[in-house]
Amino acid sequence: MKTLINLFSNNIRQYGMIIALVFITALFFILTDGILFKPLNLTNLILQNGFILVLAIGMVLVIITGNIDLSVGSVVAFVGAIAGVLMINNNVPVVLAIVLSILVGALIGVWQGFWIAYIGIPSFIVTLAGMLIFRGLTLYLLDGQSLAPFPESFRILSGGFLPDVFGADGLHILTLILAGVFSLVLIYMEYRSRKKQAAYSFDVLPLWISVTKMVLLLFVINWFAYQLALNKGIPMVLGIVFVLILIYTFIMNNTVMGRHIYATGGNKKAADLSGIKTKRVVFWVFVNNGVIAALAGLMFASRLDSATPAAGNMLELDAIAAVFIGGASMAGGVGTVIGAIIGGLVMGVMNNGMSLIGIGIDWQQAIKGMVLLLAVGFDVYNKNKSGN
Amino acid sequence: MSDYILEMRSITKTFPGVKALDDVNLKVNRGEIHALMGENGAGKSTLMKVLSAVYPSGSYEGSIYFEGEECHFKDIKQSENSGIVIIHQELALSPFLSIAENIFLGNERQSNKIMKWQATFSESKKLLEQVGLKDSPETIVKDIGVGKQQLVEIAKALSKNVKLLILDEPTAALNETDSANLLKLLDELRKQGITSILISHKLNEVVSISDSITVLRDGKTIETIDAQGEDASEDRIIKAMVGRDMTSRFPVRVPNIGETVFEVKDWNVYHPQQRDRKMLDNVNIHIRRGEIVGLAGLMGAGRTELAMSIFGKTYGKQITGTLHKNGKLIKADTVSDAIAQGLAYVSEDRKTYGLNLIDDIKRNITLSNLKRVSKNSIIDENKEITEAQFLREKLNIKTPSLTQLAGNLSGGNQQKIVLSKWIFTEPDILILDEPTRGIDVGAKFEIYSQINELAAEGLAVLVISSELPEILGLSDRIYVMNEGRISGELERGIANQENVMRYMTGSGGASNENIN
């Protein structure tokens, strides 16, 4: 029991987040009479919030370097507008249009990264300007109107599902197979990490905690996959999010670039004196965030099946909130991709749950605000307590 | 009977683990300039903080009598109200406000919270005349030089009807003309009956201007010397400042010195903001294989500036001069260049410049040379752990695990991590800036042993330290700096506390009085 308490108090940040997610999910499960967990609704939940999760992944990198990006909502709209103009007005092939749109996102990142990293203007100012600039350009491009509809093949990006290669009736077999494979990978990774911890005489958790953790995790994953399989299988959006999580978690945990990002945010002066080119790090993180925002912009346009001037309004705040709920620190140097995803899921479940029980948009905003404040407040409170 | 304006009796001030002041007595005559001298860390600033109630009454033992009455100041405001004003080394002016606004900051000319600008400016003008500053009171403070800012500080003190003015290293940041002006002003104020306490490292200016000198050493009063008396020689003051025994706090070592590895030639560096202020003036040094070279100097002499300007030009502007390694000209314009050339610099401020406190030990150790534990930019975590573990054992970093956050460790262990981090880059030239600042005696000994070991492995080591015994105990050879210049070079055996201190204070060797 004592180890369990220790474990909990040492990792209160991570566990706190997960507990919050479980609590909020349970709350809405009860409030919605179980509708929350219906296969159709779970699919919806992913489709509705996919782009927030994508944006959160890009945003967490920015926030770890100690910066902020307020422009992503406008970039989502702007890239959507570009895609619309290309595909709908000019009949540019879908794939080429997607590539060009992503390129525009990268250029926006170059633009903002240049002012922030090399000229030294605070990211808050640069991206606030970006927020206005790109919203304005969107209005100009679209002439204040919506463009619709997109070609059929573009809509797969948000509305598509992984193909049902086995064609069983009422059950998407591929989904179950993928979940099974993923479960095995997780078990293997847990096994390897335990072995390594033992080999280097790090603290190894008692076996029963490891086993309990794995059983719970695998149950959630497989149950979730089963529910999806009952509907139409794994949505394309979930596939994209999943691949991004894998890539970025790997970058942040296992590559030199990831280390440099954490070091830049953790102590910029020390990083500079350690030979890290911190300006370059910040620049590329913003370029990356431009690309991510462009991807989210395409997903958003695809889901709406139109390019509209108001697209992505306030989306940056959802992404930022997700990152902070996920345990990142305003001062930089702290945060994880997984944390940001959990934070994004908290926001997503709340969005979905509150809509299901018919809470109006007014109260939805207010409640989300309170949750953000409490989540970060709880974190700060714990940090102060452990500081004494 | 003397007329004392200030008497501090038996002041003792303890910080956790350290006795900063131990039974200190200070008596200041009315209307004199009283100099307070001592090495870095002797307790001068602490004593003045006790006097000006930065440390309030009750946080120390002993008593203070000002103008014959015992005082119990609770905060700075109270001590200022009775006429004691301190001007700190780092000036406390607000850079974007005008001179006049700064003079009356916290003491505004007002009626019912509404500023009286007329009075503010006209009174400032009078005060500025008094200190001999001709600039308009409306000038923004950031637009005037440090010398003038110092005068504004004094004008600010005068506005509070100062009776006892304390100046902490007022000339440390000034050039010679500004220093001379300031000293003239102090003399002027003395004639108007204002008493001053002057903390300074500059022997010549102290002897020339002050009436009496009190020397502190290791938190104790050593003596008070009549500065205008016959026996007030610089030698005597130096002896009083350093006269303590060298104990065997250093591991034994047999140096094995090879050929010259690293040379700095004709090195000139200017201040990064004040373009006309030369911080390093024609510095030439060399270090040989296996040699430990000490770099001594008082605060502001330019030691850290030298180290950082060498290490990837991380300090200063308009840097001229050349660096040579094994006889060949090298370029080290960025930190990564410098690291690639085999340079390593352990900063004096480990928390600000050395460590990422919110990251763990192993990641801190490998940060400067991630190439060594990665392939195609992907980090091999097993290798990282093995390497970090090796250094942790080698340097005896006392922690339960490598995944501890650096911020949770003691100063000594943090210093060992910074040292490990730079050993991990496999340098040929290692620059250590105050490697034992703020760490306990045991950890100090371990770090000294480590430095010796590195020298024995063939590294060229440069040690910057403000502790003279440390410099003398470690170094095979010592460079002494004074006001941005190398003022002396002494071999082990010849160097002692007295002659090093003489070069440090710029009074030169005994046979060499005209070094400036």
Automatic annotation (TrEMBL), chain A:
<keyword id="KW-0813">Transport</keyword>
<keyword id="KW-0762">Sugar transport</keyword>
<protein>
    <recommendedName>
        <fullName>Xylose transport system permease protein XylH</fullName>
    </recommendedName>
</protein>
<feature type="transmembrane region" description="Helical">
    <location>
        <begin position="200"/>
        <end position="221"/>
    </location>
</feature>
<feature type="transmembrane region" description="Helical">
    <location>
        <begin position="70"/>
        <end position="88"/>
    </location>
</feature>
<comment type="function">
    <text>Part of the binding-protein-dependent transport system for D-xylose. Probably responsible for the translocation of the substrate across the membrane.</text>
</comment>
<feature type="transmembrane region" description="Helical">
    <location>
        <begin position="320"/>
        <end position="346"/>
    </location>
</feature>
<feature type="transmembrane region" description="Helical">
    <location>
        <begin position="12"/>
        <end position="31"/>
    </location>
</feature>
<feature type="transmembrane region" description="Helical">
    <location>
        <begin position="43"/>
        <end position="63"/>
    </location>
</feature>
<dbReference type="Pfam" id="PF02653">
    <property type="entry name" value="BPD_transp_2"/>
</dbReference>
<dbReference type="GO" id="GO:0022857">
    <property type="term" value="F:transmembrane transporter activity"/>
</dbReference>
<keyword id="KW-0812">Transmembrane</keyword>
<feature type="transmembrane region" description="Helical">
    <location>
        <begin position="281"/>
        <end position="300"/>
    </location>
</feature>
<keyword id="KW-0997">Cell inner membrane</keyword>
<keyword id="KW-0472">Membrane</keyword>
<dbReference type="InterPro" id="IPR001851">
    <property type="entry name" value="ABC_transp_permease"/>
</dbReference>
<keyword id="KW-1003">Cell membrane</keyword>
<feature type="transmembrane region" description="Helical">
    <location>
        <begin position="124"/>
        <end position="142"/>
    </location>
</feature>
<feature type="transmembrane region" description="Helical">
    <location>
        <begin position="233"/>
        <end position="251"/>
    </location>
</feature>
<dbReference type="GO" id="GO:0005886">
    <property type="term" value="C:plasma membrane"/>
</dbReference>
<feature type="transmembrane region" description="Helical">
    <location>
        <begin position="170"/>
        <end position="188"/>
    </location>
</feature>
<keyword id="KW-1133">Transmembrane helix</keyword>
UniProtKB/TrEMBL annotation, chain B:
<keyword id="KW-0547">Nucleotide-binding</keyword>
<dbReference type="GO" id="GO:0005886">
    <property type="term" value="C:plasma membrane"/>
</dbReference>
<keyword id="KW-1278">Translocase</keyword>
<dbReference type="InterPro" id="IPR027417">
    <property type="entry name" value="P-loop_NTPase"/>
</dbReference>
<dbReference type="Pfam" id="PF00005">
    <property type="entry name" value="ABC_tran"/>
</dbReference>
<dbReference type="InterPro" id="IPR053466">
    <property type="entry name" value="L-arabinose_ABC_transporter"/>
</dbReference>
<keyword id="KW-0677">Repeat</keyword>
<keyword id="KW-0762">Sugar transport</keyword>
<keyword id="KW-0067">ATP-binding</keyword>
<feature type="domain" description="ABC transporter">
    <location>
        <begin position="6"/>
        <end position="243"/>
    </location>
</feature>
<feature type="domain" description="ABC transporter">
    <location>
        <begin position="264"/>
        <end position="508"/>
    </location>
</feature>
<dbReference type="InterPro" id="IPR003593">
    <property type="entry name" value="AAA+_ATPase"/>
</dbReference>
<protein>
    <submittedName>
        <fullName>ABC transporter ATP-binding protein</fullName>
    </submittedName>
</protein>
<dbReference type="GO" id="GO:0016887">
    <property type="term" value="F:ATP hydrolysis activity"/>
</dbReference>
<dbReference type="GO" id="GO:0005524">
    <property type="term" value="F:ATP binding"/>
</dbReference>
<keyword id="KW-1003">Cell membrane</keyword>
<dbReference type="InterPro" id="IPR003439">
    <property type="entry name" value="ABC_transporter-like_ATP-bd"/>
</dbReference>
<dbReference type="InterPro" id="IPR017871">
    <property type="entry name" value="ABC_transporter-like_CS"/>
</dbReference>
<dbReference type="InterPro" id="IPR050107">
    <property type="entry name" value="ABC_carbohydrate_import_ATPase"/>
</dbReference>
<keyword id="KW-0813">Transport</keyword>
<keyword id="KW-0472">Membrane</keyword>
